[in-house]
Amino acid sequence: MAIYVMLTTLTDDGRKTIKQNPERIKEVNKEVENMGAKILAQYALLGPYDFVNILDAPSNEVITRVAIELGARGTLGTVTMAAMTLDDFIKGVKK
């Protein structure tokens, strides 16, 4: 499994949905897990992004499917980045 950081921004429709039904966030989290990714941590943000999500997924293909599926709904946009532990980073630099 690999770790990914997903930054999300709500659209106008997304903000309306969250205002009407804040629990929708947790429903989406379950849908993400049904697509094969596990949410390790999630935080609401103040600033240019609305949420940061730390996900564990088996492949780039799975996290791509998650990002495309969520974005296609029209309620949010995503920026997704692969992440690694510092130990793995240091190992890679030493090679």
Describe this structure in words.
- There is one protein chain.
- The chain has 95 residues and is of the alpha+beta class.
- The chain has a single domain, classed as Lrp/AsnC effector binding domain/regulation of amino acid metabolism (RAM) domain (Alpha-Beta Plaits, 2-Layer Sandwich), CATH 3.30.70.
- It has four helices and four strands; from the N terminus they run E-H-H-E-E-H-E-H.
- It has a four-stranded antiparallel sheet with strand order 2-3-1-4.
Per CATH, what is the topology?
Alpha-Beta Plaits
Low-confidence stretches: none
Report on the biggest sheet.
4 strands, antiparallel
| Total helical segments | 4
Q: What is the CATH class designation?
A: Alpha Beta
The percent range for helix content is 40-55%
Q: Any idea what the CATH architecture is?
A: 2-Layer Sandwich
Mean pLDDT: 96
Relative strand content:
25-35%
Secondary structure tally: strands = 4
CATH superfamily: Lrp/AsnC effector binding domain/regulation of amino acid metabolism (RAM) domain
**Structural class determined from secondary elements:** alpha+beta
Q: How many distinct domains? A: 1
Q: What is the helix/strand order?
A: EHHEEHEH
Radius of gyration: 14 Å
**Strand arrangement in the largest pleated sheet:** 2-3-1-4
Span between termini: 22 Å
Q: Please state the overall shape, judged from the principal axes of the Cα atoms.
A: elongated
